[in-house]
Amino acid sequence: MQFIHEYRDPDLGRKLVQRIHRKSRKPARLMEFCGGHTFAILKNGIRDLLPSNLELVSGPGCPVCVTAISDLDKAIFLSHLPQTITTTFGDMVRVPGSHGSLASARVEGADVRIVYSTMDALDIAQENPQSQVIFVGIGFETTAPTIAASIVEAQRREIDNYHVLPLGKLCPPVMGALLKMGETKIDGIIGPGHVSTIIGSRPYEFIPREYGVPFVISGFEPLDILLAVEMLVEQIEEEDPKVEIAYRRGVKPEGNARAQQLMEEVFEVSNANWRGIGEIPRSGLSIREKFSHFDALKAYDIEPGLSREPKGCICGEILRGIKNPQDCRLFRRACTPENPVGPCMVSSEGSCAAYYRYGGEDG
Amino acid sequence: MAEKMDNRITLAHGSGGSLTHKLIRETFLPLLSNPLLGRLDDGAVFGVDKGRLAFTTDSYVVNPLFFPGGDIGRLAVCGTVNDLSMCGARPLYLSLSLIIEEGFSQPDLQRIISSVREAALEADVEVITGDTKVVGRGSADGLFITTSGIGIVPEGIEVSGTNAKAGDKVILSGTLGDHGMTILIQREGLGFEGPIESDCAPLNQMVSSMLEASHDIHCLRDPTRGGLATTLNEIALQSEVGILIQEDATPLNPSVSALCELLGFDPLYVANEGKLVAMVKASDSDRVLEAMKENKYGKRATIIGEVTGEHPGRVVIRTRMGTSRIVDMLTGDLLPRIC
Prior knowledge:
The complex is a heterodimer. Chain A is α/β, with parallel strands linked by helices. Chain A has 15 helices and 11 strands. The longest helix of chain A has 17 residues, at 222-238. Chain B starts with a helix and ends in a 12-residue tail after the last strand. The chains are: A alpha/beta, B alpha+beta.
């Protein structure tokens, strides 16, 4: 198929690998920000192609995984309310909260529906005027414009039984927070591809400037990732950290202005709670006053009780790049995709799920 | 109102009384007529040729009931015919048991039984016994079908998931994921516009030709739920062998490929209803492949890998990039990614 096979071409791949081997001298730890990158790296066996001085470590780029358990508990609480339809993206349903998941709420009688688009949630609201429809609005900058669009559209169609639980998060601030914490050595970042189609490359410029860390935005095909690694290696070897784009077919430096306007219209930047990391200033999205009648946080008294993290789960440390899934005592034993303990084993972008599926015997 | 009611299945249709008889006489018998069914005895009595019997059963609960490329009726015949075929058996007879939700449309039932008839004619099997139950509204999702099937395994045929041997070639009969993706876009109303339809088909005639072409077909399986990855893992475990496949060897329809990319699905894990995978002695593999290609359901048959003595119990894929990775069974549900 066009625009896919070109980016999986084995001959071009071999050439890139040779160039990386030729250029790379210094030991370096590269963080792939996105769960989508982690999957592509493991699925294509990219680790095995790289020289031994290069180490790849997974980052926090999985929206389901970084949703704080207290926020998930709010969604589960809302789903139990009478005459309520809770809509969400698929992965979210199976993540265990403090007490059960949205999936177990459904078993107990809650009306929880998986949607593929925010507009589906809006249609459900229109078709069920007697019910309240809640959309669990997780996601990064990739998803935020579509959530914003659903709110603007709800306003236009005068749908008043649609509410969004605003849990949107922003990528540049979490990268800044990880680098500032300095818990793990990061010599280069494979930057998010889809997020950057929206925000462009400019919001990351503080990373090389303030932290001296090279940053290359990558797509999700094997050649995209190899090219990004090569560009990072060049920056590392030449000690010339900067923001570059290895995903030109998707990302422009200025991003997508229309999507940014839509986000700006509906959301304002606020502090947000990240699972495994904690509160990060100005890293989340809240619904502006103008649209507050669509804000589930304002429309409901949400009292899910005290939250507690699952015992023994190291998703937090994995999201911070400190540990790998196979470092977890629960991995492949108590925690499997069928019976997940933490979110990283549930999500199709979670590191543990990627290592479980593609990582082989020892992870 | 009365007219509308006439077009609906009511609880009385399942009571065993006059309406049940009317349903059997007017819907089932004309479409499925054969001497054994026509006797309307409590069970069918028949003789069989020499050989061993194969016996299987399966329930069908697909939603939606009608989908591009088939419906629950065709599925219920093909699924059971294929299960028999994968044992190396020649399918002969089926039972057909229906659980119908009260209020179900009679014309839809007629359409579904017509599909049963067409699929049975195509597969050259007969429905010789059946049952109908009607349950109250909400107690079933429209219509559930159970079919059981009986077939004969000819002398000298020894096909089993335990028989794969190191050195065997792994042959796949065609494209992957057509059924699963068709159902997904129908069920979720994804509005995906592309030529995509279920591959639901009876494979018994292709299997007959294959068994004529070689006596060294060691293993046959139809990769339904869980997809090819799960089926190969089952065989690797049962036969205590390793299986090595090539990443770019599995054929895909462009629409299925595009949809899988879009939703983040791996076609190796998506369901098929008209495909088989065979483990065949290497020296016979070309002959078997030719036999498959002569059948309309095997046009795109191809060798996708081989059975090996290494890594017993594991399926390994050689990626386009020249690396290898383990292919696990399907775990959890197939869900689309969001980012």
